[in-house]
Amino acid sequence: MSDSLLQSHRDAIDAIDVEILTLLNRRAEHARKIGELKGGGLVYRPEREAQVMARVKALNPGPLSDESVAKLFREIMSACLSLERPLTIAYLGPEGTFSQAAAVKHFGHAAVTLPCASIDEAFRVVEARSADYVVAPVENSTEGAVGRTLDLMVGSPLSVCGEVVLRIHHHLLRNGADMAGIRRVYSHAQSLAQCHEWLNRHLPAEVERVSVASNAEAARLASLDPQCAAIAGDAAAERFGLVKLAENIEDEPNNTTRFLVLGYHKSAASGRDKTSLVMSAQNKPGAVHTLLSPLAEFGVSMTKFESRPSRTGLWEYVFFVDIEGHCDEATVNRVIDALRAKAAFVKVLGAYPVAVL
Ligand SMILES: C=C(O[C@@H]1C=C(C(=O)O)C=C[C@H]1O)C(=O)O
After folding, report:
1. Atom 10 of ligand 1, residue of closest alpha carbon
2. Residue 311: is its pLDDT beyond 80?
3. What is the best residue among 29, 74, 77 to mutate for testing ligand 1's pocket, by most ligand atoms within 8 Å of CB?
4. Cα–Cα distance between 80 and 176 in angstroms, integer?
5. What is the rounded distance in angstroms from the CA atom of residue 252 to the CA atom of residue 141?
């Protein structure tokens, strides 16, 4: 490669960077003006952000991938929004958990993330208005529902206003160079379960598996004791300076966790939304079938169905149902009315844009 050719490309990049900088700041000025129009009220608009991301993906001429472009715009919007007011996002800590990674994926790096000791506490700080939104795991593709989040949503005054889908990669981490002499492996119970087969194949049976409150806590414990290892992700490995002895050890290669974003504000319709509901059925044969019949009647698709024991009676259940569309749209609205006519209890947990990234 000739030096002059290289230099000419670098000169072109320098000139383009000046243009990008000007345009970014022009964009930020508009966002700031919008903030003023909002008068210090609701600043974050999930439906608008989803539309901006979907639009740039659709318009993207390449060679950058649609995903790269969406990620860049996520950060641009995060920085623009922080000019209005930085958002505080509560999550199940400590720092380095997948919940924190999900919060950053959804709100970008300009948001302030607030680690909490439990999912309960993360809900409570938002309910008490000490943080703006909570990002909580709701289901994993290998392990199924996160019961605590579902239970909390039933009684919480917060509404779901977004979802985040995160690919989960687990690594075996240690404060040491190889696998010799590991006595104990720490991780969150869900992660131990997600790596169960790998652990059976690669570690002696006598190695103790100890479940702790989070993967980041597991990494912290492993960083203190060289006889111990942890199963956790990249963020925790970096945060506690651990060596990755084995990468991507999850049994299911498409291991993915879905998180929900909840706050006091509702999301308006974006054009591509989901509505999450919880309802109860009477305890008699065919009750669930009858309960769900309005969905078929109105041609509304269900993207999730999950049952949980209700806290009110033995062998009574509540059902968590996600449907396509926004509850403000006519058809979805009519379906919800029809469900209310059949179910003992229906609560709309929230309506929100389908995850774009
Ligand atoms: C600028 C706005 O406020 C925020 C920032 C956005 C952006 O940078 O594009 C989009 C939605 C809001 O979260 C807006 O409401 O349009």
Report:
1. 49
2. no
3. 77
4. 42
5. 9
User: Which residue intervals of the chain are DSSP H helices?
Assistant: 3-37, 46-59, 66-84, 98-107, 119-127, 147-155, 189-194, 196-202, 215-224, 234-239, 287-298, 330-342
Domains of the chain: 3-84 (1.20.59.10), 88-168+256-263 (3.40.190.10), 171-246 (3.40.190.10), 273-353 (3.30.70.260)
- Looking at this predicted complex, what is its ipTM? 0.97
Give the pLDDT confidence of 33-54 residue by residue, as tens digits. Answer: 999 998 877 899 999 999 999 9
Span 217-253, pLDDT tens digits: 999 999 999 999 999 999 899 999 999 999 999 999 8
pTM of the model: 0.92
CA quadruple 282, 286, 292, 297: dihedral sign: negative
Q: Which positions are annotated as active-site residues? A: 257, 259
Distance between Cα 67 and ligand 1 center (Å): 20
CB 302 within 8 A of CB 322: yes
Can you tell me the distance from the alpha carbon of 19 to that of 29, in angstroms, rounded to the nearest whole number? 15
Is the CB–ligand 1 distance for residue 80 below 6 Å? yes
Instruction: Determine the atom of ligand 1 nearest the C-alpha atom of 77.
Output: 8
Residues 58-113 pLDDT 10s: 999 999 999 999 999 999 999 999 998 899 999 998 888 899 999 999 999 999 99
